[in-house]
Amino acid sequence: MARNTRRGFLRDGGLGLAAATVLANTNAGGAASANNRLVVGVMGPGGMGTHHLRALVGRKDVEVAYVCDPDRNRMNAAATLVHKATGRAPQAVADMRRILDQKTVDAVFIATPDHWHGPATILACNAGKHVYVEKPCSHNIREGRLMIEAGRRNKKVIQVGTQSRTAPFVREAMAQLHKGAIGEVLVARVWNSQLRGNIGHVKPSKPPENLDYDLWLGPAPTVPYQSNCVHGRWRWWYNFGTGDMGNDGVHDLDVAVWGLGVRTHPSTVTALGGKYFFDDDQQFPDTQTVICEYAAEGEKGRKKQLIFEQRIWSPYVQEGHENGAAFYGTRGMLIIGHTSSWQMFGPRNKLVKQMSGRVEVPGHHANFFDAIRKGAELNADVSVGHLGATICHLGNIATRMGRVLHFDPKTEQITNDKQANALVRRRYREGHWAVPEGA
């Protein structure tokens, strides 16, 4: 498939073009309309959020006016970082509504735990803000669809933090695949192989004074505080994260979807896995194999397959890369590492082409800002991010169920398993202000 064009996004019903062609500076009274400097707020300036801040404070065309975190220590550290780098002290707030209420804010960066990605994005779009949201774009399949609709309805751009979409060496690899350099690509295989840490067994306790735990929970169900469910470790809990498939795996799954040339969801998903190694409180599997099958497109189309392998107890690389993807075509094979290089092989495993490079945050930011100002095409629009995230959600559901799932790409429902289909959505805290309408 050729790289998605603006017309293609409209045809496929995605948000990409609807957002990317919005006239620049749509926020009435916003700073961008006054002096072309975009005013932004950063929500969740912890691990990845700090990386965003360090890149943003180096831009002369952006003002970080707000930082937001329910952890007072992280909030203050972020404010100090911005002040030292720019000489301007941002407003430091715990509640994101303080940012969303400000008409002068043009865009927000959302680097919160996964359970906040969808609700915060929808709230921001409804408040007239453009959004850069970290991967995976959603905590569940239903929220991903609601995010797309919120962007389209409010004419706001939503960029997902899958930075490989902007990396020149990755884009060149995809161009090679789409022009048929290895023939027709029928199978893609993704691996997530690395050594994670044990989070232990921890009993509930009182939250630390610096953390507003109620704000941190947000629309998620109320559960007692545990020290191993916050700050990076939330990703191992069903209520807050999406496991390592949604954490690191989604980067390469996104590339696999791109290279495989599919523009919809898989129709069949099956998986095996569980906790083979870790003895701790993690709820998601540490070992996992997911197989997705895509229905044939058109009269002459063929079925396609995507395979995901995960071993987060293994400090060994595959095919020369810790994390990566392999594409199998009718005339060759291409192997790409997540942040380093790719190699293309022809018949008899002859190396015919290779390229190295890096995946960096600043270029992805630049694409986001160009989409806001100039209507440039987003490299990682939420409609594209939704495809990769949905594989993560379906893979995790199939692993929990241990069954073959049939999925309708149009209705985004699991059609053969009511118990599994209930996990297409999630439970919310009843009456909470951040619960998305229609969720």
Keywords, separated by commas or semicolons:
single chain, alpha/beta, Dihydrodipicolinate Reductase, domain 2, six-stranded parallel β-sheet, globular
Main-sheet strand order equals 14-13-12-11-7-10-9-8-15-16
Q: How many E strands?
A: 16
Main beta-sheet annotation: 10 strands, mixed
The level-1 CATH class of the largest domain: Alpha Beta
Percentage of residues in helical conformation: 25-40%
Helical/strand content category: alpha/beta
Distance between the termini: 33 Å
CATH superfamily of the largest domain: Dihydrodipicolinate Reductase, domain 2
The ordered H/E elements are HHHEHEHEHEHEHEHEHHEEEEEEEHHEEH
**How many individual helices?**
14
CATH topology of the largest domain: Dihydrodipicolinate Reductase, domain 2
The poorly predicted ranges are: 1-34
Number of domains: 2
Could you please describe the fold and organization of this structure?
The structure is a single chain. This protein has 439 residues and is an alpha/beta fold. The protein has two domains: 181 residues, NAD(P)-binding Rossmann-like Domain (Rossmann fold, 3-Layer(aba) Sandwich); 197 residues, Dihydrodipicolinate Reductase, domain 2, CATH 3.30.360. It is built from 14 helices and 16 strands. Helix 7 runs parallel beside helix 8. The N terminus is likely disordered.
Task: Outline the fold blueprint.
Layout: H1 6-11, H2 16-20, H3 31-35, E1 38-43, H4 47-56, E2 62-68, H5 72-86, E3 91-93, H6 97-100, E4 107-110, H7 114-126, E5 130-133, H8 141-154, E6 158-160, H9 168-178, E7 185-193, H10 213-217, H11 243-260, E8 268-274, E9 287-294, E10 304-311, E11 323-329, E12 332-337, E13 341-345, E14 351-356, H12 361-374, H13 382-401, E15 405-408, E16 413-414, H14 418-421
Parallel strand pairs: 1-2, 1-4, 2-3, 4-5, 5-6, 7-10
Antiparallel strand pairs: 7-11, 8-9, 8-15, 9-10, 11-12, 12-13, 13-14, 15-16
Helix pairs in contact: 7-8, 8-13, 9-11, 11-13
